[in-house]
Design a protein that fits this description.
Length: 608
Amino acid sequence: MKTLSLFFASLFLCSFIVAQHSKRTDIDSKVNALIKQMTLDEKIAQMTQPDYNAIRNTGSDIVKYSFGSILWGGDSEVKDITPQGWSDVYDSLQRLSQKTRLKIPILFGIDAVHGHNNVDGAVIFPHNVGLGATRNPQLVEQVALVTGKEIKATGIHWTFAPCVAVARNERWGRTYESYGEDPELVAQLGVAYVKGIQGASLSDQNSVLACVKHFIGDGGTVNGDDQGETTLDEASLRRLHLPGYVEAMKAGAKSIMVSFNSWNGNKMHGHKYLLTNVLKGELKFDGFLVSDWAAIDQLSGDYKDNIQQSINAGLDLIMIPNGPGQQNSYIDFMRLLKELVKEKKVEMSRIDDAVRRIVKVKFEMGLFENPFVARSRAATVGSQENRSVAREAVRQSLVLLKNEKNALPLSKNAKSILVAGKSADDIGVQCGGWTIIWQGKKGNILSGGTTILQGVKNTVSKETTVKYSVDGSGADSGDVAIVVVGEEPYAEMFGDRDDLTLSSDDHAMVERLKAKGIPVIVVLLSGRPMIVNSTLDKSNAFIAAWLPGTEGQGIADVLFGDYAPTGKLPHSWPKNMQQIPINIGDKNYDPLFPYGYGLTYAADKAMN
Ligand code: GLC
């Protein structure tokens, strides 16, 4: 019997391998047949990725040129940002691609980096720094799966995520986009995200193409300067910043975004050794490389030189924010690249290699067969089922740094609770950057979700009085105070800081309440560790909540003991700015809290 089942198992395996092989050769023959038909203009257009803002009024250019891809950059969005509104625009643009000579579908990319964060009503998940604190790859895979479903529900099928930056200096404004300071944790969660967002096959109905970014060394720049200089020997660069890419490629990632930063003085967008010799050669990356936002413009020559250098370095698809009449427009790019080919400064073989990589992924995604969105899917965006995954991620992201005399968990039957702080009732602050707009924004910026204040109100008993004040005023004896402090939204270089000390207003609020003898529970909303020593001393309990997203209810779940905190620090927590950069493994390592630190509740205190 055993032999028979072994026989059928091996028969199944062989037939699976044969089927996969024949699918690959079938796609290869389709790619070859298509490339044979393409003119040079059509090939160059496939390597061109205009931003939506550049073509929104020139839709005719889509039919005229047949662009390979269109992106919605940080501040580029449709007029009606409901799921329906996004689906309408997606469909209308993709229909234009079917009016081109070869009907090659357009690849649409967007920064859905913590949920489908440009869409009103979408579920916004904790930013990656919070996911790093969960140490839970299965949860991160689930987060990615739900994110993919919400992206695909609007037709879009490519997200510029996961960011596998290894953030080594918390001055960096993009620290929160990284899973943490340890390459192994970053690789583990980056892989989980790729598996979740792409699914078992790129042609699955929920599958969204991942884009692993930013290659390479974005989190390792001097002083944490965004788009700065990463000075490392090659062995250290590979040890610290390469694992996320190697593991993500093994997990099936088919697009990688090249980084703005330099390595030892050379810009990544012109780095042939790392992009072609290492990534495509040594590591056999068979997907495509996409540039960052107008990043080739930062190379040292004029636009034509920069196009020549970046394409010959190994870039395949070029992100171009500017349209007709603007400098370095997508028209300029296509014209100049054609000149370079005619002048043999860019070989036709390089063009064909780039086009092959891009078109092959489109075939693997099933885009030629199913370019349009099932319009009914828009209604699934922001569902309670999806929100429950985000709420779980919030719970598991919280890191308890202090809990004096078991101040936490709080009683749901407390007589009176004061919730304080301008960010305690602010969904925009909870979400942080890359939410509706590039930089994010304070206030009620999108529908759905719960603020921390709303979460507290939803949790306590009817007998409990919940008071709210933006500055901590209105506290009476007998109260317990939940004080929300921290950073306001920012993205990229706008978040670079030389001083990460908590604001004096935030500290004063905690101090005032403490002076009144009110027990203070501090909840820190930030994209990174901050300098909080004196505030920590004044607090009875202190939770790092990072940038939790829309599901603030998850914070109340832990504050009131329905769940115990399990989060672990994804960064070493510094005592002062002079210690930064401080990372696990450093000599004389002496942080305020070490990498991996995190308390939980006494055994008899939490329900789950
Ligand atoms: C930005 C970021 C990158 C993002 C891209 C498109 O400048 O560096 O992470 O995916 O542009 O918005």
